[in-house]
UniProtKB/TrEMBL annotation:
<keyword id="KW-0645">Protease</keyword>
<feature type="signal peptide">
    <location>
        <begin position="1"/>
        <end position="25"/>
    </location>
</feature>
<feature type="active site" description="Charge relay system">
    <location>
        <position position="543"/>
    </location>
</feature>
<dbReference type="InterPro" id="IPR034197">
    <property type="entry name" value="Peptidases_S8_3"/>
</dbReference>
<keyword id="KW-0720">Serine protease</keyword>
<dbReference type="InterPro" id="IPR010259">
    <property type="entry name" value="S8pro/Inhibitor_I9"/>
</dbReference>
<feature type="domain" description="Subtilisin-like protease fibronectin type-III">
    <location>
        <begin position="660"/>
        <end position="763"/>
    </location>
</feature>
<comment type="similarity">
    <text>Belongs to the peptidase S8 family.</text>
</comment>
<dbReference type="Pfam" id="PF02225">
    <property type="entry name" value="PA"/>
</dbReference>
<feature type="domain" description="Peptidase S8/S53">
    <location>
        <begin position="135"/>
        <end position="585"/>
    </location>
</feature>
<feature type="active site" description="Charge relay system">
    <location>
        <position position="214"/>
    </location>
</feature>
<protein>
    <recommendedName>
        <fullName>Subtilisin-like protease SBT1.4</fullName>
    </recommendedName>
</protein>
<dbReference type="GO" id="GO:0005576">
    <property type="term" value="C:extracellular region"/>
</dbReference>
<dbReference type="InterPro" id="IPR023828">
    <property type="entry name" value="Peptidase_S8_Ser-AS"/>
</dbReference>
<dbReference type="Pfam" id="PF17766">
    <property type="entry name" value="fn3_6"/>
</dbReference>
<dbReference type="GO" id="GO:0004252">
    <property type="term" value="F:serine-type endopeptidase activity"/>
</dbReference>
<dbReference type="InterPro" id="IPR000209">
    <property type="entry name" value="Peptidase_S8/S53_dom"/>
</dbReference>
Amino acid sequence: MAVASPISSFVFVIFSFFLIPATLSIASESPETFIVHVSRSDKPTIFTTHHHWFSSIIASLPPSHHPSKLLYTYHRSIHGFSASLTAAQATELRRISGVLSVIPDRVRFIHTTRTPHFLGLADSFGLWPNSNYADDVIIGVLDTGIWPERPCFADTGISPVPSTWKGICETGPDFPESSCNRKIIGARAYHRGYEAGLGKPMEEIKSPRDIEGHGTHTASTAAGSVVANASFYQYAKGEARGMAIKARIAAYKICWRSGCYDSDILAAMDQAITDGVHVISLSVGATGHAPEYDHDSIAIGAFRAAEHGVLVSCSAGNSGPDPYTVVNIAPWILTVGASTIDREFPADVILGDGRIFGGVSLYSGDPLGETKLPLVNAEDCGSKYCYSGKLNSSKIAGKIVLCDRGGNGRVAKGSVVKLAGGAGMILANLADSGEELIADSHLVPASMVGQTAGDKIRDYIGSDSSPTATIAFQGTVVGTSPSAPRVAAFSSRGPNYRTAEILKPDVIAPGVNILAGWTGYTGPTDLDIDTRRVNFNIISGTSMSCPHVSGLAALLRKANPKWTPAAIKSALMTTAYNVDNTGKSITDLATGEGSTPFVHGAGHVEPNKALDPGLVYDMGVGDYVAFLCAIGYDSKRIAVFVGDPAMVDCGALSLGSPGNLNYPSFSVVFDTNNRVVKYKRVVKNVGSLVDVVYEVQVSAPPPAVEVSVSPSKLAFSRENQTLSYEITFSSVELERVGGATKSAFGSIEWTDGVHLVRSPIAVEWREDSMVTM
Ligand SMILES: *[C@@H]1O[C@H](CO)[C@@H](O)[C@H](O)[C@H]1NC(C)=O
Ligand SMILES: *[C@@H]1O[C@H](CO)[C@@H](O)[C@H](O)[C@H]1NC(C)=O
Ligand SMILES: *[C@@H]1O[C@H](CO)[C@@H](O)[C@H](O)[C@H]1NC(C)=O
């Protein structure tokens, strides 16, 4: 992953040292880690355990001058092992009977409190009191570890560790037994894959301690305890709370300085399932397009989790606004995009000619005065992106420097300006990020402005003979201007790269300027020169939206203990909203226009409504296997998920199109041969009334598409009854195929007068049939 692309650079701003160093490239003859999926039923009886069998398989491989090494044996998340092998040994391994697939290990990357209030959560009504704050629900957070001494992990007022918990608190350097309590009930560290990938002994401390901050942030967002008077310096002051203040945290450290390896992720998922977690929160993902499901360890691990009733909630990725960028797209994963809340940190840029442009900042040092300082464009001083070592000090000393967003990290630009003697910085968006404003804790007085303002300030610098400016920091402002939520430009988008018939992402949730706990090891910017240490930090990313939804899932699980992970997901999706706090459709910050289901999925989560969704679209492992059959996987490929090809009979599973999977949303592809698409769905009545009639409304028909639903009334008469319906989409404007308009959006709603069960519809017209790869 290079830093050169301005679009992708955002992802690693906060987490910039997660970039792969060049040292990770692997010489062809040196050993590499492979993840090996093995058929469960093929174990010869002479081996007492699978571990013996796997060790003997490895011992039987042709010798190499590197000793081949078994890294992990997997039992739950997959059936198989990971080992350090040469390419020749891997080839040999593929020939052994019972071996289903041999996949090279891959590195993944990590992708915070007014948010409870913004989500409508309250102590007096709705999901919080109805779930007792997810009292004994356990959330497994797979991340960079945890900094346990933070106030958000205090366990006062929390009942004893649930008897269902089977995990441990793995002690290690700087991680004594006392690191765990009734809040952090377990912690483990996984680094064998990482160390093998590095090819040399790792220098980091091998314990669950978080030296990065990301894991502490995500864990406290999902399940942090109540902390009075929390803030980041003077910003975002107030009571901080995780989503599920009584839920328990099990921290699995899978991410290290240069990334998170599939082999370690699988080992942690395997363990988390065995340990008895109820929800897995994973703010980590592939870069680039989503991998094939059977090459995607997160998808494979999540399948097994679903089989054990564990809900897996993942970040959608920070690679927006390009289409096809959403990752973690398996239909059994809850995929979460990022949006803003109604809290801003304004920092006005005031120009010498009196004009004022609104920006944002979390700068906390000495402010600039009212006196305006000389203003320069970084492009005229050596580097428009303000790259390290590229700014001419004599041109910027004592001045405010306008730097363009992209290329390198946002806070890194500020530190470059500071080190070169600049007095301040204006960070201006380019077209990629539009009007998306991310507040950062810059080391110089700095404000980030949108593209429109940036262009005007640049023009001013170019046309005025002695341009000047200052920045006025306004602290924390809560309100409806600008509107909220708005979808972050960085939030990864659909369509679904692998299976166009499944809409992704699923939902959006708060992911911009989120306050949550932080490590004591590094400063809030993660920059070496940042010597500040904070209890709380404010950062942004789909990494921050995922744990919000993980926490909500924990609450829903407690409130409805019999619901499957798919039912919880359905409840969150069909009750999500699409209208912001000014009554308009939710804005996409990349375009300034209304966002579409490819951007926001079913919409923004609304937890109190998810508590009582009326109907749910339920699914189980059998449905997911049928889905894999429908996308053309053979039994050997499906065995990677289910453990044994003998367990798969695609002939008996007649889903037809993958679009018939009982998903709570609709994604339709028309092409020249295919102008009518029919999907089947089954809904289950989970409302309090047994006798109830739901009627459908095509509330928002997509333009140029006729939508009909049959039957249009569903009369329920028994508890937990399921009823099915068929929905038909007909393209009425054939010329759209190959024309300019390639997509359209709408929704249907089932209602009994009390509940509104809404499903979004995304329609695409494609030149030819490239429906499923
Ligand atoms: C929180 O801060 C306010 C004002 O700064 C102060 O009056 C109050 O005592 C503090 N509360 C706690 C629990 O520290
Ligand atoms: C830096 O700017 C000064 C003053 O404008 C100029 O004389 C000098 O050549 C520049 N240095 C470089 C390396 O461009
Ligand atoms: C309906 O489902 C709930 C929760 O799954 C269960 O407790 C109850 O026994 C079911 N009722 C019937 C009649 O199956």
